[in-house]
Amino acid sequence: MTTEVDKLLKLHEYDIYNNESINPDKLCQLGKCFSKENIDILKYFSYNKFSTKFCWLNPILIIYEMRYPQKLKCLSWLFGLLQDVNWPVYQEVIHALMSFDKRDVVSVMEKCLQEAKSHGDVMWISGMYMAAQELIIGSCDFQNKEIYQIFYTRDL
Question: Could you point out which of 30, 63, 74, 132 has its C-alpha 20 to 30 Å from the C-alpha of 90?
């Protein structure tokens, strides 16, 4: 089944994978399309589909425009972009995270911290720590205070 999103993404002016300078109005339109269709959003936002890390900004801008129930499905994807503070979209991810309910952000952060710890990924832990600082997330916001302690294993 071909969706409206599929049709748009085939057009050059909507090519989020290879075009770093898409008109913001086009990204806004995509955000509305992603919001109303019952599709696997993360399939479209798979990191390896993008020609450069700079193109990752496109889905971030799309997420800004999405309605909350669909947008919420993208939260773990955004956290994946915190794995390296030197990536060109890091600061935009922080701003995107500010558009979510803090409880939802913390819930996904807890899961990602556990995943990062299990992989020994101290850079990702550092990225999430810096995000938590900017988002004013403290240990009192965590359901499980022990998970907050993972921040102390970050790359300094």
Answer: 30
